[in-house]
Specification:
333 residues; alpha/beta; Rossmann fold; 2 domains; seven-stranded mixed beta sheet; five-stranded parallel beta sheet; 12 strands; 38% helix; elongated
């Protein structure tokens, strides 16, 4: 074979050989998770916090796994709402690609800190807080799940409370408003008439330890028989204190989150957390794959969970009607 033919053959072989390339792994996506109560070290797939476990499980379902394709930064106000403004600024200063906000107060603080970083939040009422233009088209950098499904759920909670505490004649409704006027007024009036009870609005001026101690002392003076906690997220940071004060004053309490029941609250009727975090994870996935948050509708729950703490039932000398107990989704004993 002539030399030039050999060279041509070798060149052809090189041209035909596939180029040796090493596949570059996709760049991990960096997200922040911010809570008002749960300590940062408990925000994990294997933590003692139910909400965190559900969130990480649902993200895994969609292929987002910490340490593989996702870097997670954790932040918490650790039960101090007054820290949220500074905490939100700190989170934004680190410029994550996306922020998951645990609760309305967290979402509001983050919304004030950034209008560009996408935020996926669980909030009480996105519309009432002015965080979105509409549920169908948020029109801002925020979307998520709004657990406020209307005032009718307040009436349902009062009805369930009356079933467990049939002797109750005066029920206190704790709401952070600073005023006895409340948007739940018509529902409270309707429940009062139907159940033959008096529902008294107990306005909370601010969500602080001193203020909770003050209103429980006021309810003792006013001979309140049972308590309904509104679904405003601020109360969650003080759930242990609220439960302790309710136990001290022997006040049966209906709450808007199962987290209260976990620490000794009597019962709760709230959005099913599995459905909530399924939706939150879906929103995170959509944003990480290119959808703008302003185009992702805010979801409202359609499934609810009834939780009851039988230890508290026994301590208060109450009896849960068998039909109501059979309907419970979570029973702590």
């Amino acid at each position: 074979m002539r030399r030039r033919d050999l060279i041509a053959l070798a060149a052809g072989a090189i041209a035909l050989r596939p180029l040796a390339t090493s596949a570059q792994p996709a760049r991990p996506r960096r997200i922040a998770i911010v809570t008002s109560v749960v300590p940062a070290y408990l925000i994990s797939e294997n933590s003692g916090d139910d909400a965190s476990r559900l969130l990480f499980r649902e993200l895994r379902r969609l292929g987002h796994i910490e340490g593989r394709d996702m870097i997670v930064e954790r932040y918490s106000a650790e039960g101090h709402p007054e820290r949220l403004t500074a905490l939100a600024r700190e989170v934004v200063s680190h410029a994550p690609e996306l922020i998951v906000a645990g609760g309305g107060p967290v979402a509001e603080a983050l919304a004030a800190a950034t209008t560009t970083i996408p935020i996926v939040a669980v909030f009480t009422s996105a519309l009432r807080a002015g965080l979105v233009a509409s549920l169908a088209r948020p029109g801002s950098n925020i979307t998520g799940v709004s657990v406020d499904t209307g005032m009718e759920i307040v009436g349902k909670r009062i009805q369930m409370l009356k079933e467990v505490v049939p002797a109750a004649q005066k029920v206190g409704y704790i709401e952070l408003s600073g005023s006895p006027e409340t948007t739940a007024g018509p529902v409270l009036a309707d429940a009062s008439q139907k159940l033959g009870i008096s529902v008294v609005v107990i306005p909370l001026r601010e969500s602080t330890r001193d203020e909770y101690e003050r209103i429980f002392a006021e309810m003792a003076d006013r001979r309140i028989d049972a308590v309904l906690i509104s679904d405003q997220g601020e109360a969650l940071a003080y759930r242990q204190l609220i439960v302790q004060l309710a136990q001290k004053n022997r006040l049966p309490t209906m709450c808007a989150s199962a987290d209260f029941v976990d620490v000794g609250g009597l019962m709760a009727y709230a959005a099913d957390p599995e459905a909530v975090f399924h939706a939150i994870a879906d929103d995170v996935h959509q944003i990480l794959t290119g959808t703008k948050p302003e185009r992702i509708p805010v979801v409202q729950p359609t499934k609810f969970e009834f939780s009851v703490n039988l230890n508290t039932v026994q301590a208060l000398g109450l009896i849960v009607p068998p039909a109501l107990l059979a309907a419970a989704d979570r029973v702590i004993d």
